[in-house]
Amino acid sequence: MTIFEGAVLALFLAIFGPLAFLYGRSLAHRVHAQARRDGGSALRITAAKLLLPALVALSLALRFSGSELDEWLVRTASGTLRAAISALWLMGSIAGILFFAAIPFVFGRCFALIAVAFGWFQHLEHQPSRSGAAGFRERAARAEPEDDEG
Q1: CA dihedral 63, 68, 72, 75 (to 10 degrees)
Q2: Percentage of the chain exceeding pLDDT 70
Q3: What ranges do the domains of the chain cover?
């Protein structure tokens, strides 16, 4: 690995790592809660949630492989495989446009799998946003009743 590649990897992890961690932590907590509620295996629930990130990762790899779609379609004689490659190409194009959401999604799901396997974040408490943003019902519950007599 060259210094440039190392710098790109460090920048990549610095940008996408925190987003993937936050998403993965939240997902792991929800999976543990669902497993406790339903009485099932947390790993089985997480494994089912890995299909879409695998498709997104595969489509991104296909789309940004450096080959054009026509080159991929010429390599196969099957119409079914051509349709699948075209669909993956389209999905990769959309994921490429939404790159900043697709990458944390894929890495977050992978982190959630690791977190569930090791039992991390089982008893994570819900922490409301500290930005002061509250929903309508929360604000209404805190508000004092208005007196219409005047």
Answers
A1: -160
A2: 83
A3: 3-118
Task: For 74-120, write each residue's pLDDT tens digit.
Answer: 888 888 999 999 999 999 999 989 988 899 999 999 999 999 999 88
DSSP the chain: --HHHHHHHHHHHHHHHHHHHHHHHHHHHHHHHHHHHHT--HHHHHHHTTHHHHHHHHHHHHHTSS--HHHHHHT---HHHHHHHHHHHHHHHHHHHTHHHHHHHHHHHHHHHHHHHHTTTTTPPP---TTS---HHHHHHHSPPP----
Residue 107 CB-density burial (10 A; 0-12 exposed, 13-18 middle, 19+ buried): buried
* pLDDT tens digits, 65-74: 888 999 988 8
What is the pTM for the complete model shown? 0.70
